[in-house]
Design a protein that fits this description.
- It contains six helices and eight strands.
- It has about 180 residues and is an alpha/beta fold.
- The protein has two domains: about 40 residues; about 140 residues, Glutaredoxin (3-Layer(aba) Sandwich).
Length: about 180
Amino acid sequence: MTVSLWQRLATVLRRQRWRAHLGTLLTVLAVLVGAHLWQTRHVPPGPVPDLPLVLTTGETTTLHAWRAQYPGQPVALHVWAEWCPICRTEEHSITRLHQDWPVLTLAMQSGGLQPVQKVLEKRRLPWNTAIDSQGSLARSLGVQSVPALLVLDANGRIRAASVGYTSEIGMRLRMLWVRMVQ
């Protein structure tokens, strides 16, 4: 079976179109990677500090004690605010992630215990949530804007971070990646 001249020509043109767009694709990729690195520039590598936590259940604990409930597993810290529209968009993704992975959410600058409890109840969010009314806990994690997702490995080191909207598949891939490399 011989390949016609037209088929060969079509193949060459497809390759040329792809090559013509390669520079654009690489530029877009460089911009996205640069934006991600800029947004997460304050997130420190290595182990996170042992932060004191007040949970919406009224319980007081520390980040290390909460993490110890999930030995050998990566855990996600999701920093959000009740006034943040992007955080609101991510709520269903966090709820679904919470069903399969250990997730602790940190309500940053969203009021005290009772206001955050009311938000969780009103929006039907079954999250493990700690209160960060002044934003100091988030800042000690290097988080300066919301939403933010930090994935900690079994040793409590930040292994993945994202700031801004993160898709559910992006969250799950980060969790799987951290599980594989720990």
